[in-house]
UniProtKB/TrEMBL annotation:
It is a multi-pass membrane protein. Keywords: Chloride, Chloride channel, Ion channel, Ion transport, Membrane, Transmembrane, Transmembrane helix, Transport. The chain crosses the membrane at residues 43-68, 75-97, 117-134, 154-174, 180-204, 216-239, 245-267, 279-297. Residues 315-396 form the RCK C-terminal domain. CDD domains: EriC. It is found in: Membrane. This is RCK C-terminal domain-containing protein.
Amino acid sequence: MEACCPIGSGLALGREGPSIQLGGAVGQGVNHYLKGNKSQQNILISAGASAGLSAAFNAPVSGIMFILEEVHHKFSSVLLLTAFSASITANFVAYTIFGVQPALDLGSLLQFPLEHYAHLVIMGIFVAVMGWAYQEVLMYMPKLYQKIPIPPYLYGFLPFILVIPIGIFLPEMLGGGTGIILLISSGRISTHLLVGIFLFRFVYSHISYGSGLPGGIFIPVLSLGALLGAIYGNGALWITGIEDIFIRSFIIYAMGGLLTAVTKVPLTAVMLITEMTGTVTHLMPLAVVCLTAYVVADFLGSDPVYEELLQKKIHQIPKVFEGEVIEFEVSVEPDSDLDGMMARYLRLPYGSKLVKVRRHNNEFIPHQDTVFWSGDELFFTADSGFVSEVKKQLDKLN
């Protein structure tokens, strides 16, 4: 309910963020009711988050891919089956309530001409650079808000104040951005107007999200990508004389490209755009744009936006030796590298140590021949300055 007010009032926020959080909370509640262990809790939270994304966009496959590609960074049969069941069920319920229409019905698309694929690579580079700029501003917004001489709990009033004049003079600019996407895809708009709308939405979305109000960035990013695609499409039509009908193709491909550049999840972006638009004729050109955007974003040094936001949230950026010992636990996930690993082969960074293992409510001190099982809870100690580095290495194994 907390997210309904900022999203429903017209701020530039997406509904997928609260949907994922609500789904994860439901998964945690189910695990608590079933008295599951830490490993089962992680799987159920992930499955709930997958269901939340699926229900938000009527995109069941994207919900599954997001969890595998963005959250866990690995493939697990148990995780896949659980997330698949939750995502499909949530999507069926959403279909029953809201119908089977795609979230963005942009009409049918012609197959993009093979001889113009060079434009896709160039546009992929273009949206990757803009994605890097978007991410840099997003990370700087909390510092900018801190410079305003008001208490942090009043930050949320600033975007709400902007809603009033925007709603009076530019009501089309309100909301997460779905209306913008449908507007620019319905007919060709001048490049100058598109640039003006992009700059306005770019600033408005950062003011909305940077205030700390609950909401997501998927839809705002997709709307900005659509604007970039229309801008590039106008230029391509003017230079090369491509038919006007392909302007919608540029819009759709740029949406996936910008989402890839910001989140670093190309497969999720491809599937999300495919499911949202309800057409598969653009799979190949969309994949070319997303792959190009991913490679260029990686070259520019962009990290996945959610990982960066998490690091800023928990303040666990690796520092130096601080002299304070921190204990933390890690639950061994099914089918991970830790599952079945012998303790002697676990290589930990300097200053960290495995101190005990909890298995089926029994605790013991591991020795070199101890084999880790799925569901084991491993307890580590490390200097507070290196906890993040240790967890990062364990996440790669787990």
